Amino acid sequence: MSVSESSSPSVEKPNLIRETIIYILMAVVAITTVGPFLIMLSVSLTQNIRFITFPIELIPTPITLENFQTLFARTDALRWLFNSVYVAVISTLGGVITSSMAGYAFARGNFWGKNVIFMLFLGILIMPDTALIVPQFVVLSRLGLVNTYSALIGPWFASIFGTFLLRQAYLSIPRDYDDAATIDGANLWQNWWHVLMPQVVPTMATLAVLRFMGNWNSFFYPMIVTSKSDMRTLTVGLGTVARSGGDAGLDMAGAVLGFLPTLLVFVLMQRYIIRGISLSGVKG
Amino acid sequence: MAVAGSSQSNNAQFLKRLRSSLPWYPFIVINALVFVIFNLVPWFSMFRYSVLKTDLLSTREFVGLDHFLRMLTDAKLHKAMLNTAWFTLMYIPLLVGISLGVAVLVNRPLRGMKAFRAIYFLPNITSVAVLALIFRRFLSPRPDGPLNFLIGLVGIPPQKWLIDLYQAMPSIVGISLWEAFGYFMVIWLAGLQAIPNELYDAAKVDGANGWRLHRYVTIPLLRPTAAFIIVIATIGALQVFGSIFILTGGGPVNATTTVVYQIYNEAFNFGRFGYASALSILFFAIILIIALIQSRYLRFGDDVY
Predict the structure, then answer these.
(1) Residue B91 belongs to what H/E stretch?
(2) Is B287 close to A158, i.e. CB distance below 8 A?
(3) A-to-B residue pairs, Cβ atoms closer than 8 angstroms
(4) Which CATH number fits domain B68-298: 3.30.465.10, 1.10.3720.10, 1.10.8.420, 3.10.450.350?
(5) Hey, is the C-beta of A90 within 8 angstroms of any chain B C-beta?
(6) End-to-end alpha carbon distance in chain A
(7) Number of structural domains in chain A
(8) Residue A176 sits in a domain of what CATH number?
(9) Cα distance from B165 to chain A (closest Cα, Å)?
(10) What is the ipTM of this complex?
């Protein structure tokens, strides 16, 4: 008792110098992370800017949307934006629903091959996806699926990670719910949709946010399976903008276009993202 | 009689099992299909194509194990492996150090901490294409380019960054660090916050404080987190591609050509899909071996107590 009383004030007493140093350090890191984004935004609104040079005026005069107009006029950026939204939304919806279904089957089902399939899935989960990119392209080109939405969405329409995540969520629900539903005459589908799924909605939301961000930001795979400009996703298209050597204003307008959607999702869904990392992270 | 009876009951059991199994398959059929088309079939095709010489269009001949022999003498591949190793060896220690440092910094109940954490996470939610667009401009070799101006303030002369033979890879490392530290900070934070306060109290009662508190409580208890981070980050580092593709195209003079970039090159610039498949097998084996070695020596699990 006396120990805690004598030691806790000395620990919790606000140490002004120490706190100030901590805040300064954190501010430096914050400027390093936010600074480039602010400059990106500023340059994208600046007229006739070929290079980013320092010192820089953060608020351009005049503020103009010219760079965005040029971007939309000279590249397929609008089409890329549409492709990205379409692919990300369908991929996310599909992936979350199929994960919820399969997670339910692995949590509650008792069927032949359950353990074998489960182990196979586990095997895929630990496989690095870049190692499989070339064979994936070979298979897709033989199926004639290069430059199609099927190729862009396909691998995202199921998620092994999501299946595991949802399986855990379903396992944490007591069997009593299933028993009660069965007595009331519910079949497996009704039990899944009406009884169990409403209880795992937060987990599904977490998965949805992670999948959306992952899909929106993916670069290597969509670049490989698309060669026509009008089938590219925004990130892949922006990659070609970066390599084409236009002026800085155009580049930054593209960057803003690619950045804003993810920023919006992040601001609205931050707690789901952090939750998702903690879920997938600490367990090891 | 007994035999017939048991086979009959076996049969009945079989039917019963079948009947209880069937309704479950529709729940996994889409997952299984996606897995077969996009993973299992490519997996087999990788081995099949590794022994073929093909550009997927006209040529297609069986070459046996030639591709695997060629790896032994392929100087570009060796350079790419060295580059990948160089990237990983620079990246991992810096990443672990920086992300842990920042996590310790923000892991206290001060005002505004949540906002800082969110801000640090910002680069991580950003696409590699956006990062590349920004940093291609920031790393401009012009003397009044952003980074050159900033280092000029402390008296360092302008550098060439991405177009310099020796600075290109460290530049890519820097961009990767900038992008990833927020993500690993969150994982460190989860690890830090999982340490029970009672352990610190107990250690204080035993007379530990300040640095000794961290030495004997924090660090040992963070070991599983550290192991997880190192393995995950290494697997990611070995696969670095997007920023290199957009920023340097593997150059200058192959200085940033990594194994993944080289696989991409062989397949999509030279049309050697057979050799690229063989390289994919090699790459997969390398990642697997490194991950297994790390998991063994870093010791996951709870035996730290």
Answers:
(1) helix B75-106
(2) no
(3) 280
(4) 1.10.3720.10
(5) no
(6) 38
(7) 2
(8) 1.10.3720.10
(9) 19
(10) 0.87
In a domain, A212, yes or no: yes
The answer to whether A278 and A203 are in contact (CB under 8 A) is no
Measured CA to CA in angstroms, residue A201 lies from A98, A272, B10 at distances of 14, 11, 42
Judged by DSSP in three states, A242 sits in helix
For B295, phi and psi rounded to 5 degrees? Answer: -60, -35
Residue type, B18: L
Give the one of B17, B37, B105 whose C-beta lies nearest to A154's C-beta: B37
CB-CB neighbors (< 8 A) of B183 in chain A: 277
Q: Which of A32, A106, A128 sits opposite B235 (nearest CB)?
A: A128
DSSP string covering A110-153: --TTHHHHHHHHHHHHTS-GGGGHHHHHHHHHHTT-TTSHHHHH
Q: What is the pLDDT of residues B154-179, one digit of tens each?
A: 888 888 888 888 999 999 999 999 99
The pTM assigned to this predicted structure is: 0.87
Which amino acid, one-letter code, is at A214? G
Best mutation site among B40, B134, B295 for testing chain A: the one with the most A CBs within 10 Å? B134
Residues A10 and A132 in one domain: no
Residue type, A229: S
pLDDT per position as a tens digit, B212-270: 887 888 888 888 888 888 988 998 899 999 889 988 888 788 999 999 999 999 999 99
Contact B137 A248 (CB under 8 A): yes
Inter-chain touch B37–A39, beta carbons under 8 Å: no
Structure tokens at A39: 């400059």
Contacts of B271 in chain A (CB under 8 A): none
In a domain, A49, yes or no: yes
Whether A98 sits inside 8 A of B249 (CB atoms) is no
Nearest CA in chain A to B102: A26
Residue of A nearest to B198 (CA): A4
For residue B72, the model assigns a pLDDT of 93
Tokens 């496989």 map to which residue? A127
Of A30, A138, A192, the CB nearest to B119: A30
> Which of A127, A259, A277 comes nearest B126 by C-beta?
A259
Per-residue pLDDT reduced to its tens digit, A152-161? 999 999 988 8
| Angle at which helices A248-281 and A77-108 cross, to 10° | 10
Tell me which residue range forms the domain holding A114.
75-244
Q: Is B270 on the interface with A (CB under 8 A)?
A: no
Burial B83-94 (b: 16+ CB within 10 A, else e): bbebbbebbbee
